[in-house]
C-alpha cells in the first residue's frame, strides 16, 4: 500500500468509529485521532514518508512486527504498546481496517463505562 493511500484509508476507517475525532495538538504535521480525549492513532510524514501510528496489545504488536516488514515499533511512542505502519507491500486495506479498529477498542476498553461510545466486547 502506498503512503498516501495508507493514511487515507486509515483516516477513512477512523472517521467511521463512534466518538472518534481528529485534532492537531502537535501542529499541522501531525493528525491525531482521539476517542473521549485519548489518542488511538497518529498520522504524519515527518519521517520522510507518510506513516500511521496505532496502539497494539504487546503480544499482537510483536507478532505483527515479525510477520510484516512494513510494521515497526511506534515512532516517538512507547515501543511496547504502539506500532508504526509504513508504506509497502505487506500491508493491505483489510489489515489497516482491523488494526485501526483494534487500536480504537484498546482505548475504549480503558475508558470508564459511562464514557464508552461503544461496548468493546460487542463492537465490530
> What's the average pLDDT?
96
* Major β-sheet profile: 6 strands, antiparallel
**Strand percentage:** 15-25%
Please state the overall shape, judged from the principal axes of the Cα atoms: globular
Kindly state the percentage of residues in helix.
25-40%
Sequence stretches where pLDDT stays below 50 over 5 or more residues: none
The SSE string, one letter per element, is: HEEEEHEEH
- Secondary structure class reads alpha+beta
Q: Which strand order does the major sheet show?
A: 1-2-3-4-6-5
CA gyration radius, whole angstroms: 13 Å
Q: Count the E strands.
A: 6
Terminal CA distance: 24 Å
Count of helix runs? 3
What does this structure look like?
The protein has 124 residues and is α+β, with helices and mostly antiparallel strands. Helix content is 32%, strand content 23%. It has 3 helices and 6 strands; from the N terminus they run H-E-E-E-E-H-E-E-H. It has helices spanning 3-16, 58-67, 93-108, and strands spanning 20-23, 30-35, 38-44, 51-55, 71-73, 82-85. Strands 1-2-3-4-6-5 form a 6-stranded antiparallel β-sheet. Strand 3 (38-44) and strand 4 form a beta hairpin. Helix 1 crosses helix 3 (93-108). It is globular.
Amino acid at each position: 500500500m502506498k503512503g498516501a493511500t495508507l493514511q487515507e484509508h486509515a483516516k477513512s476507517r477512523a472517521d467511521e468509529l463512534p466518538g472518534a475525532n481528529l485534532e492537531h495538538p502537535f501542529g499541522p504535521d501531525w493528525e491525531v485521532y482521539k476517542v473521549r480525549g485519548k489518542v488511538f492513532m497518529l498520522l504524519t510524514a515527518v519521517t520522510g514518508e507518510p506513516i500511521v501510528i496505532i496502539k497494539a496489545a504487546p503480544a499482537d504488536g510483536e507478532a505483527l512486527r515479525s510477520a510484516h516488514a512494513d510494521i515497526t515499533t511506534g515512532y516517538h511512542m512507547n515501543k511496547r504498546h504502539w506500532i508504526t505502519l509504513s508504506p509497502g507491500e505487506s500491508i493491505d486495506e483489510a489489515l489497516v481496517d482491523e488494526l485501526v479498529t483494534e487500536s480504537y477498542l484498546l482505548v475504549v476498553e480503558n475508558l470508564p463505562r459511562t464514557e464508552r461510545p461503544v461496548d468493546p466486547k460487542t463492537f465490530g
